[in-house]
């Protein structure tokens, strides 16, 4: 059996938390695992400033989606310009991912289903039916959405008349 080929993979740059982030994310998502960890060599230590033997990259999968994280140093920071959308079928899924990712994150960066986790990565935890709900009932669902941090599926459905 041939392994699946994923042409494009997100690559996340951390200072020193790549392994910690990969562990948290893989614990939160079903069908997830760390697939490889590479460490800085003695030669790379000189070029990178990272200690030999420390984690350089961590390859992992979240619900089958491949990611790579690097401990590359403090040169770059995450921004809300890029986020990961988690489509949820139930309120229980919304609660699971919201609670797991927002713990230790930035409360000021929470609105309309968006959050920033403790590593600075932005996520959108949304119901899979959000687009359909927002297109119903003349914008009432959008008005309800704009008042929320964590999304409440029952309230959105009621506002949409669904």
Automatic annotation (TrEMBL):
Pfam families: 3-dmu-9_3-mt. Gene3D superfamilies: 2,3-Dihydroxybiphenyl 1,2-Dioxygenase, domain 1. Residues 6-126 form the PhnB-like domain. It comes from the Bacteria. This is VOC family protein. The lineage of its organism: Bacteria, Pseudomonadati, Pseudomonadota, Gammaproteobacteria, Lysobacterales.
């Amino acid at each position: 059996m041939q392994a699946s080929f994923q042409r494009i993979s997100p690559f996340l740059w951390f200072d020193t938390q790549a392994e910690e982030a990969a562990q948290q994310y893989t614990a939160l998502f079903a069908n997830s695992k760390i697939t490889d960890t590479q460490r800085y060599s003695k030669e790379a230590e000189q070029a990178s400033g990272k200690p030999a033997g420390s984690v350089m990259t961590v390859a992992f999968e979240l619900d089958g989606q491949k990611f790579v994280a690097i401990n590359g140093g403090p040169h770059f920071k995450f921004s809300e310009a890029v986020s990961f959308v988690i489509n949820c079928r139930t309120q229980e899924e919304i609660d699971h991912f919201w609670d797991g990712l927002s713990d230790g994150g930035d409360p000021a960066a929470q609105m309309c289903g968006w959050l920033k986790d403790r590593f600075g990565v932005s996520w959108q935890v949304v119901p899979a039916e959000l687009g359909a709900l927002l297109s119903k009932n003349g914008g009432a669902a959008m008005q309800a959405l704009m008042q929320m941090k964590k999304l409440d599926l029952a309230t959105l459905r009621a506002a949409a008349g669904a």
